[in-house]
Automatic annotation (TrEMBL):
Signal peptide: none annotated. It comes from the Bacteria. It comes from Luteibacter rhizovicinus. This is DUF6249 domain-containing protein. The keyword Transmembrane applies.
């Protein structure tokens, strides 16, 4: 009985480890599709009323999305670095650089995009 329980536990761990990221990606895609669909329905309603929809509104990407992801991932990386330093675990420290560098990449993308559009790169949201 114990062997069967151990094998089921191992199977459950594998399913959750592989299925968890798939579930999260599925949720993110679902919400993106829902947002896109609502924008398209809004444009259709505007056309039905005789108005011309603003195409920039339909294709608009939130500039602040890169900033939010950059801030979150950078903070996660710094927190993991702090935990790794306290625990003195070199493998943990090496893994902490992954979210930190990805977050810094998002922040860099945000600032480059804002500067190329001629917008101010203030941290305070003005638009």
């Amino acid at each position: 009985m114990s062997d069967m329980l151990d094998s089921l536990t191992g199977l459950l761990v594998i399913i959750l480890a592989l299925g968890g990221p798939v579930f999260v990606v599925g949720l993110v895609l679902r919400f993106k599709l829902r947002k896109q669909r609502s924008r398209q329905e809004f444009a259709i309603r505007m056309l039905e009323q005789g108005h011309t929809p603003d195409l920039e509104l339909l294709d608009r990407k939130d500039d602040w999305s890169d900033f939010r992801w950059g801030a979150i991932l950078s903070a996660l990386g710094v927190a993991l670095l702090a935990v790794g330093a306290v625990e003195a675990d070199k493998d943990f420290l090496a893994g902490a650089f992954i979210p930190l560098l990805i977050g810094l990449g998002f922040l860099l993308t945000f600032y480059v995009r804002r500067n190329s559009q001629g917008k101010k790169t203030d941290i305070v949201r003005t638009d």
